[in-house]
Amino acid sequence: MARLAAFDMDGTLLMPDHRLGDRTLATLRRLHEREVTLTFATGRHALEMRRILSAIAMDAFLITGNGTRIHSREGEVLYRQDLNPEVADLVLHSRWETDASVHVFNDSGWLTDKALPETLQAHLSSGFTYQLTDLKRLSAHDVTKICFVGDHDDLCRLRIQLNEALGARTHLCFSAMDCLEILPVGCNKGSALAVLSTTLGYSLQDCMAFGDAMNDREMLESVGKGMIMGNAMPQLRAALPHLPVIGHCRDQAVSHFLTHWLDTPNLPYSPE
């Protein structure tokens, strides 16, 4: 019996319209009643996730910013890690050959330098939004992460540039096909989940986790039971071919799997 369950949000718990389905919410409450500790492990900001938890009236630990922050159920910061200021300064003040937009995250929120209404579609239900600012004048201290959003092929070329400039001073990952993230060294959902599980007195073998993108890789491969979504990035499925694939987020597949796990744990699971 798993004691801790970790859930990615976009492409996993959330349906394509970025809402939590009723069946998903009901199943999460069943897990809570069975004394399984819940944590949402997401690239989203802690400020937004607290709004979401308040709206659904659910207690859970938060791993946000792709592992840069861990918050207790009461909102206490249990762990934090920021980008090296030299790295943040280099990224913000260098000229990169890309058409991607730049997004900076710190404890105050989400910062960008151009109005991009399309990027708000994923945040309509929470009302979370960016703050327009001159990124060149932004302090390089206390930057949690920096994201580039754009065409996937363009981002792949940008990743080569960033690797050449930053080397081992940062961790690069795709949180979606159109989003390349620059994170602190050693910072990912898996390392954050290891910190949280130790804090709670669990081992990673006591954990189950669900995800769909490359920023979920370390988390999924480190837990006792890792599940990949049917709508996952092909790169994730190729990287973790031994892990089971469940259904699509549009069908609330996490709820489908967990209902089977709770009610008929001794029978083989099929996503059909």
From TrEMBL:
Active site: D8
InterPro entries reported for this sequence: Cof, HAD-like_sf, HAD-SF_hydro_IIB, HAD_sf, HMP-PP_phosphatase
Positions annotated to bind Mg(2+): D8, D10, D212
Gene3D superfamilies: 3.30.1240.10, HAD superfamily/HAD-like (3.40.50.1000)
Superkingdom: Bacteria
One Gene Ontology MF term: 4-amino-5-hydroxymethyl-2-methylpyrimidine diphosphatase activity
A Pfam family it matches: Hydrolase_3
Cofactor(s) this protein cannot do without: Mg(2+)
EC id: 3.6.1.-
Protein role: Catalyzes the hydrolysis of 4-amino-2-methyl-5-hydroxymethylpyrimidine pyrophosphate (HMP-PP) to 4-amino-2-methyl-5-hydroxymethylpyrimidine phosphate (HMP-P).
Alphabetical list of HAMAP family matching this protein: HMP_PP_phosphat
Protein name: HMP-PP phosphatase
Protein's organism: Kosakonia quasisacchari
Gene this protein is translated from: cof
